[in-house]
């Protein structure tokens, strides 16, 4: 199974349902419209180089369509961090992965004060070129069977690279992590065994798609189950995020501890009434944050642990097994071993060592890193 094939299946199954509720742009996109839009973008992107294609867009309907369109055109999205040093990140990604084209938006460049880099293509201009004939053609094609659409738009193998993300580069240059369709889907299927997900869920999507947490949690998991995502491009706009959770009746919210501190401090009692799953990761969860959510919102904040290279989930706490202060148990299908740095012996409980992870969620490898 390929990620974009799964999207096609779900889009056909839930055609009239709202897929993306883009709160920044004030528009709702059904699964059917998203399928048509992705097909149009896929056709427009065929004029550019094959292989890798950069995407630097904020969390929005446009970003989702760009990613899906790129994959459906046979290209591999390379997700670029725009939060700091966007221009340098673009040039670094182009050099490391040897590509030229980057899909972005003028509005984003203006907001982050980033100059135009050679190879940049603006999503606004791509969509402005879409003719009435393009729309009619895609709408007619979207009525074809899943099998027919798959043959045209979802070729490849499950161990092919689905997209590339960069590590933080805290110690040296960021590494280009190649994640496959199998990696992401295996992580979702593991999560499915410990959490309850349904097509009725509304998933808050505020995390950036250049981060694995955003990719798996805020995009592919909702697609896999036919959920609605409520997107908002600024996770630091804490008050607005709380308003969105309340107004859209979000049932699943994930994020980093720093984001959750902001939501806790800006929320009113009852803002999280619709939420049944609160999950935090990417940093240690402070006890006071857990206590604050329980006392102020009557919600249990669960902690998980993962990495870009593991798609990302490794261990999780669940409603049935929650040990505050720990990162929980390994996900089904994931093996974890902590061994001594020098001897390679397995460490006893309480001893610090090197964490080894085995499972279908583990990346294909770093690109061009020897």
Topology:
Blueprint: H1 3-13, E1 18-22, E2 27-30, H2 31-45, E3 52-55, H3 61-72, E4 76-79, H4 86-97, E5 102-104, H5 106-112, E6 120-122, H6 123-128, H7 132-141, H8 146-153, E7 161-166, E8 176-180, H9 181-192, E9 202-205, H10 212-225, E10 228-231, H11 238-248, E11 252-255, H12 257-266, E12 277-280, H13 287-297, E13 301-306, E14 313-316, E15 329-330, E16 335-339, E17 354-358, E18 365-366
Helix pairs in contact: 1-2, 1-8, 1-10, 2-3, 2-7, 9-10, 11-12, 12-13
Concise synopsis of the structure shown:
This protein is an alpha/beta fold and 370 residues long. Helices cover 38% and strands 20% of the residues.
CATH class of the domain at 28-178: Alpha Beta
Tell me the number of strands: 18
Q: By helix and strand content, what is the structural category? A: alpha/beta
CATH topology of the domain at 28-178: Rossmann fold
List low-pLDDT spans.
Answer: none
* Span of the ends, CA to CA: 30 Å
Corresponding CATH architecture of the domain at 28-178: 3-Layer(aba) Sandwich
Mean pLDDT: 96
Helix content: 25-40%
- Give the strand content: 15-25%
Rounded to the nearest angstrom, the radius of gyration is 20 Å
The largest pleated sheet is described as: 5 strands, mixed
Numbering strands along the chain, what is their spatial order in the largest sheet? 11-12-13-14-15
Q: What is the overall silhouette?
A: globular
What is the subunit organization of this protein? single chain
């Amino acid at each position: 199974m390929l990620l974009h094939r799964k999207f096609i299946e779900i889009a056909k199954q839930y055609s009239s349902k709202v897929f993306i509720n883009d709160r920044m742009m004030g528009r709702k996109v059904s699964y059917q419209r998203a399928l048509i839009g992705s097909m149009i973008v896929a056709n427009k992107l065929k004029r550019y180089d094959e292989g890798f294609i950069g995407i630097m867009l904020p969390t929005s309907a446009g970003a989702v369509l760009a990613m899906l369109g790129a994959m459906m055109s046979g290209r591999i999205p390379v997700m670029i961090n725009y939060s700091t040093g966007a221009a340098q990140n673009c040039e670094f990604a182009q050099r490391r992965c040897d590509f030229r084209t980057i899909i972005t938006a003028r509005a984003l460049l203006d907001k982050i004060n980033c100059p135009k880099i050679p190879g940049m293509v603006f999503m606004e201009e791509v969509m402005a070129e879409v003719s009435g004939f393009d729309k009619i053609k895609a709408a007619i094609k979207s009525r074809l069977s899943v099998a027919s659409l798959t043959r045209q738009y979802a070729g490849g193998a499950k161990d092919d690279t689905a997209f590339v993300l960069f590590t933080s580069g805290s110690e040296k240059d960021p590494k280009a992590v190649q994640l496959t369709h199998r990696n992401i889907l295996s992580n979702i299927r593991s999560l499915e065994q410990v959490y309850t997900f349904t097509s009725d869920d509304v998933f808050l999507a505020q995390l950036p798609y250049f981060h694995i947490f955003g990719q798996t949690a805020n995009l592919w998991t909702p697609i896999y189950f036919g959920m609605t995502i409520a997107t908002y491009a600024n996770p630091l706009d804490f008050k607005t995020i709380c308003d969105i959770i309340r107004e859209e009746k979000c049932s699943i919210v994930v994020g980093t501890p720093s984001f959750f501190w902001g939501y806790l401090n800006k929320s009113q009692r009852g803002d999280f009434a619709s939420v049944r799953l609160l999950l935090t990761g990417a940093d240690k969860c402070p006890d006071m944050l857990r206590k604050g959510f329980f006392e102020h919102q009557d919600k249990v904040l669960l902690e998980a642990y993962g990495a870009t290279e593991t798609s990302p989930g490794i261990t999780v706490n669940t409603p049935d097994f929650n040990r505050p202060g720990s990162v929980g148990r390994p996900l089904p299908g994931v093996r974890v071993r902590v061994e001594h740095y020098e001897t390679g012996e397995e460490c006893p409980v309480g001893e610090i060592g090197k964490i080894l992870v085995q499972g279908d969620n583990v990346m294909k490898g770093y690109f061009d890193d020897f």
